[in-house]
Write a structure and sequence with these properties.
This protein is α/β, with parallel strands linked by helices. Bound molecules: 2-deoxy-2-amino glucitol-6-phosphate.
């Protein structure tokens, strides 16, 4: 949930650490800190708030030559789990002697008994964090070999960690290790960078090493030596990053979210490219890792995910049932991992995760593997832990998604699941003609989304009318029900309006009591089965004074009659219409949040990748 970065090399570390933190800020942004090695001691500066305030503080506190000379350092941007976002609780944390500094992403679950034991031994803690216990534990274990001390300390902790450690007594090296939280090592020319993800590395090198769970590495400017926590040497391959640093910049847009919304025609084209077969009317998805024969033996499909990925799974459920005539279910990953679910070898379990690092989804994957299911991943981040642990799967090719509010990943998840359902359907009753027709519709998706994005200014005008509301309801039926949930999540995340998504029929069973004069209801009523029923529900809301914003199919005059405001999306296959409809809601949420002056890319209390339970 936090972002850690470490640098060792020939260039001045402080500015590299700060720019690394900026690129990792979407992982957590409530406080930050850094530590550098200088003349046999460790210099630390920390600050509550964004990386910018840390930079300001370091500039004010540190002599300029430190910025030029210090060549080894570690840094951290935080998403608080233990102790509020204060200067004292910010990382790095030091050991009792002040000679060892540590940054940590994850949770030390047994930190209380460890702390009590160390306090009995005379240790003094200055923060409320779980992490400070680990830095003291390393100090307590230190007998002249930092690597050994870190191994000994990590053998005593329960929980998750991605760490970087430096010692004033052993300049010229960083010790890094992971269990549950990601660590990527960038191998440069005379320099090495350690980070929570590749976005902090890409501007230095494209050569990276992904650490596996329980790996620990000694990193110097010219070498990376990896072992497991029992100090047995392990080999990890050097991978090449498939994008350039430009992909992690705003490219002239005011916010990453707006940039990523506008990137969708291209990201969707990338997600589709080479994956449709218009001759056989099917899709080519080698990542499903099985032949049509094996596919036909799958009895059930189970989608796993959290947040937006869970909503994409809900669209997948409809698509697989309708196109492939197969029993499909969606599981909230955190519930799945603890519920002891009934899973069999004829189940296809699809783990959906943009980051590929979400702790609950990762644990659910391990549970499904335990139960012998056929497990695959649907991820965006190449080389991510879920992608590596599932061992087979499909990459979205959506490009880096920086804004905390997921947009292009969602639409790419949905378009890939439509192609997966098409492939599964063709291994069953879905005919070649139907397949070709659907493949042609899927091929249109980038153009449909382009058309929807062109309405951004019109949607901004509508958004202005809803920007001051404090509550909002999104309603939809069938394929649009998950899109209503996703629309509500987007608005909640970035505008802090209390928005709820409901199946349109569900309102009567309680939520309608919340409607009063002017309450916004966003009704998804494009041309799909159930549209008329949704329009009936709109009438019920209108009768209670609600203000209705309808998302309807272009030119649908009848539906427009029911609405106070309308956003039109191009006509297309009902399943495909989930995508332009979702984009319309992304744009609406963006403009409402913008009108409210919200921090769109880094909404309060959130982080891009949830690597803790
Ligand atoms: C979506 O906008 C949120 N950032 C969040 O709900 C996210 O979808 C969820 O944390 C799952 O993330 P993942 O796809 O990286 O696993």
């Amino acid at each position: 949930m936090c972002g850690i970065v470490g640098y060792i090399g020939k260039s001045p570390a402080p500015s590299i650490l700060i720019s690394g933190l900026r690129r990792l800020e979407y992982r957590g942004y409530d406080s930050a800190g850094m530590a550098v090695l200088e003349d046999g001691s460790i210099i630390v500066t920390k600050s509550p708030g964004k990386v910018a305030s840390l930079q300001e503080k370091a500039r004010a506190e540190w002599p300029s030559e430190r910025f030029e000379n210090a060549s080894t350092g570690i840094a951290h941007t935080r998403w608080a789990t233990h102790g509020p976002p204060t200067e004292l609780n910010a990382h790095p944390h030091l050991d009792e002697t002040g000679a060892i500094a540590l940054v940590h992403n994850g949770i030390i679950e047994n930190y209380r008994p460890l702390r009590a034991r160390l306090e009995n031994k005379g240790h003094h803690f200055v923060s409320e964090t779980d992490t400070e216990v680990l830095s003291h534990l390393i100090g307590e274990s230190y007998k002249g070999d930092l690597f050994q001390a870190v191994c000994d300390a990590l053998h005593q902790v329960e929980g998750t960690f991605g760490i970087a450690v430096i010692s004033a007594k052993e300049p010229g090296k960083i010790i890094t290790a992971r269990r549950g939280s990601p660590i990527v090592i960038g191998v440069g020319d005379g320099e090495t960078i350690v980070a929570s993800d590749a976005s902090a590395i890409i501007s230095h090198t494209r050569q990276v090493i992904y650490l596996e769970d329980n790996d620990i590495a000694v990193v110097t400017a010219n070498d990376v030596e990896i072992r497991d926590l029992d100090q047995v040497p392990v080999t990890r391959e050097i991978a090449e990053l498939g994008y350039d640093s430009g992909a992690t910049e705003k490219g002239g847009f005011e916010h990453f979210m707006l940039k990523e919304i506008h990137e969708q025609p291209e990201s969707l084209a990338n997600a589709i490219r080479g994956r449709l077969d218009f001759n056989l009317g099917t899709s080519v998805l080698s990542g499903m890792g099985t032949s049509a024969r094996d596919l036909s033996e799958i009895q059930r499909v189970v989608f796993l995910g959290c947040g937006t990925s869970l909503h994409a799974g809900l669209v997948g459920e409809y698509a697989f049932e309708d196109l492939a005539d197969i029993h499909a279910e969606v599981e909230q990953a955190a519930e799945f991992r603890y519920r002891n679910p009934i899973i069999s070898r004829s189940d296809l379990v699809v783990a959906i995760s943009q980051s590929g690092e979400t702790a609950d989804t990762l644990a659910a994957v391990r549970e499904a593997n335990q139960k012998g299911a056929f497990v695959m991943g649907l991820c965006n981040v190449v080389g991510s832990t879920i992608a590596r642990e599932t061992g087979r799967g499909i990459y979205l090719h959506a490009g880096p998604e920086i804004s905390v509010a997921s947009t292009k990943a969602f639409t790419c998840q949905v378009v890939v699941m439509l192609m997966m359902a098409l492939k599964m359907g063709r291994s069953r009753r879905f005919s070649r003609e139907e397949g070709i027709k659907l493949a042609r519709e899927i091929e249109r998706v980038p153009e449909l989304v382009e058309k929807t994005i062109q309405q951004s200014d019109k949607i901004a005008e509508i958004a202005a009318r809803y920007a001051q509301c404090e509550h909002a309801f999104f309603i939809g039926r069938g394929y649009l029900y998950p899109v209503a949930l996703e629309g509500a999540l987007k608005l909640k995340e970035i505008s802090y309006i209390h928005a709820e998504g409901y199946h349109a029929a569900e309102l009567k069973h309680g939520p309608i009591a919340l409607l009063q004069e002017g309450t916004p209801v966003i009704a998804l009523a494009t041309d799909i089965a159930g549209k008329d029923k949704t329009l009936g529900n709109v009438e019920e809301c209108r009768a209670r004074g609600a203000r209705i914003l309808g998302v309807i199919t272009e030119g649908d005059k009848e539906a427009a009659e029911f609405m106070d405001d309308v956003i039109e999306v191009p006509a297309c296959h009902p399943l495909v219409s989930t995508i332009p409809t979702a984009v319309a809601l992304q744009i609406l949420s963006y403009h409402i949040a913008h009108a409210r002056g919200c921090e769109i890319d880094q909404p309060r209390n959130l982080a891009k990748s949830v690597t803790v339970e």
